[in-house]
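Re: the 99-residue chain
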Amino acid sequence: MIYVVATLTVKPETRAEFIAAATACIEATRKEPGNIAYDMHESVTDPAKMVFVEQWESAEALVPHRAADHMKAFGRVAANCLTAPPKIEIITPAKVDVR
C-alpha cells in the first residue's frame, strides 16, 4: 500500500474554479482500480493551500491514474490556478513494532 500527499497552493481568485475541477477529478479517481481513498483537504492556517491525500493498493495503480483523462483535465485547470508547482510525496506505512 502507498499514499500520495500532494500540496498545492491556489490563487485566491481561482479557488472556486480549482475546487470545481478537483471535485470532478476526485469523483472519477475514486472509481479507479487500485484506489482506496482520495480526499482533498484545506489548510486551517492558509486557505490557499489544498492538500490531497490518496491511498492506493500499489505503486503500479498510479501508472494509469496519472494518464487518466480526468487527471489531464484537472491538470489543465490546475495549471492556471496554482501559484507554485505542486509538492508531491509518495509514502508508505512505516514498519514499527508496537506492542
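The CA atoms of residues 38 and 54 lie 4 Å apart.
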